């Protein structure tokens, strides 16, 4: 099979590509240049897609003896991921840029180009498992639950998954690093990238303030309606946030306040007790259904890349995924994705994914 290996410059994608080569596939490596002005060096685990990463990917490809290219996707990445990220925050929603990048860059733009060039599949270092069931790809959690990335892949379509390869799905991260060292890959001990790749300093508020029209507003007590303070814009807050609210006076009961809701039209931010963060119901739009939902189904719902899971009952109603949580979750915000899973003996399988519009 002719395989295009997406090589980020990290240990995971390098080992995934090496396994594809070892399996006998005709592999070509490609590094995606996602920034018009890439940095020259990382700062530890901050950021990714730097010039250093491109060099690391090339060295790994050279060691494997496979062709290697750098493809410029910077403009597409800016439009589809960065601008979407800013627009979502401006609308008072909480986006997941990694999910959007997988969806629109790695498995839309990259896969489309790969297919057009005659490749059969795109190989990545994601931690997730793919199995064919009745001729359809079934997406499952990784064997390493601590690194599982099925949540950020759950928005991919069946056709995209049919042209995807995740060689690391049955392996733990520690084993991947050991294998990289055994193969002589220089990235064996390279730190994983964390935070948002296009905000390497981790200062999301500063990044947003320089790219969106900010609207000052009020901090309002959700219980009493009292004005507790002022702020420079809703982009400074996320649902569930506790610290950095800029409220001088403590609550009457002495307990901390949390961000409950963002109101971008008025500019107001509502705050209140932690109990008011509890969510028992989710409505989510634009569902991607992997396994047909025939009426209400018992499942496990996940609302964050790591953690944020609860048993639930889910049902498609007029094109909207309605999820009733059997245990409340906190910090669930519009703009996030909800993925639902079915538990079985072979490991959790993704049933569907959708974008959260409202909670209750």
From TrEMBL:
ATP binds at residues 6-13, 32, 125. The keyword Secreted does not apply. InterPro entries: MnmA-like, MnmA-like_C, MnmA-like_central, MnmA-like_central_sf, Rossmann-like_a/b/a_fold. It comes from Lentzea flava. Catalyzes the 2-thiolation of uridine at the wobble position (U34) of tRNA, leading to the formation of s(2)U34. Residues 147-149 are annotated as: Interaction with tRNA. The gene is trmU. Residues 205-272 form the tRNA-specific 2-thiouridylase MnmA-like central domain. The active site is at residues 101, 197. This is tRNA-specific 2-thiouridylase MnmA. It comes from the Bacteria. Keywords: ATP-binding, Cytoplasm, Disulfide bond, Nucleotide-binding, RNA-binding, Transferase, tRNA processing, tRNA-binding. CDD domains: MnmA_TRMU-like. Its EC number is 2.8.1.13. Its main location: cytoplasm. Residues 294-356 form the tRNA-specific 2-thiouridylase MnmA-like C-terminal domain. It is found in: Cytoplasm. It holds the Pfam family tRNA_Me_trans_C. Belongs to the MnmA/TRMU family.
